[in-house]
Amino acid sequence: MSGANTPFSASGRSTPLHLRDIVHDVIRHYRHEKDSEAHRIFRQSAGHKPKGAVPQTVNPDEETVPGIVHPGSTGVIYCSDRAMANGFNYASSHEWANLGQGAPEVGQIPEAPPRPTSIPLPEDSLEYAPTTGVKALREAVANLYNQQYRQGKLSQYTYENVCIVPGGRSGLSRVAAVVGDVYCSYQIPDYTAYDQVLSAFKRLVPVPTALDAENKYRLDVEQIKKDIRTQGLEVILASNPRNPTGQVIEGEELKTLVDTARENSVTLILDEFYSWYMYPDDEKDFGRSVSSAEFIDNVNQDPVIIVNGLTKSGSFLDGGANHPLQLAAIPLLDPERVLQEKIALQKHFKHKRDHVLKRLEELGLKVEVPPVATFYIWLNLEHLPAPLNNGLTFFEELLMEKTIVIPGIFFDINPSHRRNLFHSPCHCFVRLSFGPPLEDLDKGLDAIGRVLKKAKKEGGSAFGHSYKKSIDGIHQLDKHI
Question: Can you tell me the mean pLDDT for 4-27?
Answer without folding.
Answer: 38
